[in-house]
Amino acid sequence: MIEKSKALEISPELSGLLEAIYDEIFITDGDGVVLKVNASCERLYSLKESDLIGRNVANLQARGIFTPSATLAVLKRREKVSILQETNTGLRLFVTSIPVYDQEGKITRVISVSRDVTEISALRRQLEESQQLIEWYKRELNSSHPGKTPPGYARLTSRPMVEILSLLERLANVDSTVLLLGESGVGKGVLARLLHEKSPRHAGPFAEINLGAIPESLMESELFGYVRGAFTGANREGKPGLLELAHDGTLFLDEIAELPWHLQAKLLQFLQDYRITRIGASQSLRLNVRVVAATNRNLEEMVARGEFREDLYYRLNVVPLTIPPLRQHPEDIPFLVDYFLERFARRYSLNRGLTPAAMAALQAYPWPGNIRELENIVERLVVTSPTPLVDVNDLPEKVLRTVQGRLSPVPTAERPLPGETPLPASARASREINGEEPVTLRRLVPWKTAIASLERQLLVASRRHCSTTYEMAQVLEINQSTVVRKLHHYFKKTADQP
Q1: How many CA atoms lie within 13 A of 238 on its CB side?
Q2: CA separation (Å) from 431 to 230, 478, 483?
Q3: Which in 6, 361, 467, 484 has the greatest CB count within 10 A?
């Protein structure tokens, strides 16, 4: 370290000019020892000029006064350097350092100019966050179809689900708070999104917040946000709350029963005037949102036990809607299975179909996990089935074990009795297809849906007994090329080539 008395001596006029410059001027010798700084150092580092003169920049960097050192980079590279620098006071500086050479090419001085870009960096981060939020909005909007029922639900024909969908159509035109009730996996989230997509708010965001997935210690700050310096460890620029993401759209509060008691009053206040106050803020923000809540727990019992505020319960319970478990409307299972098969076929490029016996087994299963469990099992069948046609024996063991004894025998390939001459495959298929029971209409369905369903069943039945596509064509009385094309259409190139 040099003696401070040997610091760089400059004229009073030049010194005055340096002190008048808002940016920091930082001058060292060829060894990185500080010779001169202007008064901006106190603003940037909370240090006086006398605390820096005579210090080596390597030592200052080691102490965390600034990181990294632009001067050290110049001495190493022997050229002009521009970098972003962090200070001990939490600021971000844009530093440009220039070497000064003597006649022998030796660096005798390094002059650095540092500009505080903390606010610019903060604005940049806010812009990036806004852009990320816009992208999130776009993904949410692109994944939905405003005004249209999700395909899996458009085909549901059971009375309870038809009534629920009809009620959602009416509720979509108002902003009343809706409370969705039902077991886990019944589709509360899908119906909440459907309500949003059919509403005039469909162009706005659909913000889904799972309260059961947020740690209790972080829930208040995550939901309501906070301002700069609100608490230790907080983001330096503050942070908007998750509730703000729903502005001009729909706020879906899933697992509402998991909201801690001390936050229930704050949520109640929000539901009364739709204003939120970030932690540490003095002013509130007004949000334009439609609230939909959901839970699989009995809120009335929780109110009786003192676990859930009664006033909040009544504020949420404006329009309660109970979603029935899947076991109460098994007639919808074939339509849901077809929807999931189509979706996973697009995702994995694997077309799969179910035999009537497999479908019957799925309808007999009680589905404790409801639609979510059905979706998971269909995906498993699509990716694990060795053949394009999933038969009953391909179903998971727990399904087979549960439905054992509940199913009527489903005919499989016929075996001849002792001494009986076996029938040709085409004859056995003809017996099954052209047997005593004609095709029967059980419910009114769209024409294309009925045709596709019948074609698929005919292919499954004929494939079970025929060893080649020529035999299938003979039984079905169509061209062999048509059989191949239909198999490719429904089951992705599964035809046996003769």
Answers
A1: 16
A2: 79, 17, 19
A3: 361
What percentage of the chain exceeds 90 in pLDDT?
40
Per-residue pLDDT at 253 exceeds 70: yes
Rg (CA), the chain: 36
pLDDT tens-digit profile of 396-442? 999 999 988 766 554 443 333 344 444 444 444 444 444 444 566 66
27-82 pLDDT, tens digit per residue, is: 999 999 999 888 888 888 888 888 888 999 999 999 889 999 999 999 999 999 99
| Inter-residue contact 321 to 161 (CB < 8 Å) | no
Q: Which amino acid is at 152?
A: G
Question: Quick one: what percent of the chain has pLDDT higher than 70?
Answer: 78
**95 strand-pairing partners:** 83, 114
Instruction: Reply yes or no on whether the pLDDT at 353 is more than 80.
Output: yes
Residues 6+ apart with CB under 8 A from 11: none
Question: Within 10 Å of residue 62's Cβ, how many Cβ atoms?
Answer: 11
pLDDT in tens, 167-199: 999 999 999 999 999 999 999 999 999 999 999
Q: How many CA atoms lie within 13 A of 361 on its CB side?
A: 25
Asked whether the beta carbons of 42 and 26 are under 8 A apart, the reply is no
Position 189 scores a pLDDT of: 93
Beta strands in 224-341 (DSSP E): 225-226, 239-240, 249-254, 275-276, 285-286, 289-295, 319-322
Contact criterion met (CB below 8 Å) for 493 and 464: no
Q: Which residue in the block uniquely carries the two structure tokens 């060894």?
A: 31
CA distance 9 to 90: 31
Residues in contact with 304: Cβ distance below 8 Å, sequence separation at least 6, in sequence order: none
**Burial tier of 192 (Cβ tally within 10 Å: 0-12, 13-18, 19+):** buried
Q: Which residue segments constitute the domains of the chain, with CATH numbers given? A: 4-116 (3.30.450.20), 123-324 (3.40.50.300), 327-410 (1.10.8.60), 419-498 (no CATH)
Q: Integer distance in angstroms from the first to the last C-alpha of the chain?
A: 92
Taken as a whole, the chain contains a residue count of: 498
- CA-wise closest residue to 196 among 153, 275, 141: 141
Residues 6+ apart with CB under 8 A from 242: 207, 209, 222, 223, 225
